[in-house]
Amino acid sequence: HPHCSQGTFFFVDKKTKEVKSVGEFLDMDRFLKKVAELYKRVNPKTFDLVSHIDDWNELQECFKQENAPSDMTFLDLLKTLDGYEDTEMRRTTEKGKEHGYPHFFAAGMHFMDAYNFSVERVMRCVIHYVDPKGRLYPFCAYNGGPTYRKRVENTFKLSDEEVKRKIIEENYPKELSRLSKKIGL
Prior knowledge:
By secondary structure, this protein is α+β, with helices and mostly antiparallel strands. Helices cover 35% and strands 13% of the residues. The chain has helices spanning 28-41, 53-60, 74-82, 119-123, 139-143, 149-156, 160-169, 177-182, and strands at 5-12, 19-21, 103-109, 128-130, 136-138. It is extended, with a radius of gyration of 22 Å. The termini are far apart.
């Protein structure tokens, strides 16, 4: 469904603090078509930039420098997008080093519930939850309509003692620090 979900990247100009949508300075349709063509032709493990310089130039032509935030280059855009795939490349590293360009992502979706649930739309859904066994659940099927959430939560929930044991075994991971304090560990 064309209105099921939407999203865009916004970039914050380092000098003026003006916010610009990526669509203002990147020909998104052309860029995505070129990336899809490149993906079909190139093996990422053997990708050699020099032998694919024409592909690089075609991608770069989609970037409209005159409409981009000041000082932003095509390479800055690519570095920023790297962080969504590789956590080592996130915008600010633990050492405080910046990578990429200041940005944020905004997304929205048309949520289905028991009253407007459509199996046809769920079959085309691209937003999924994954359970610990790796099974995928379309967002609206997980949260609305037949609601798989309760079944999944009941199947995989841990007792308080199991949670404590897991936190200790995993050496108090920072993601669970608030929970650790709350349960007295």
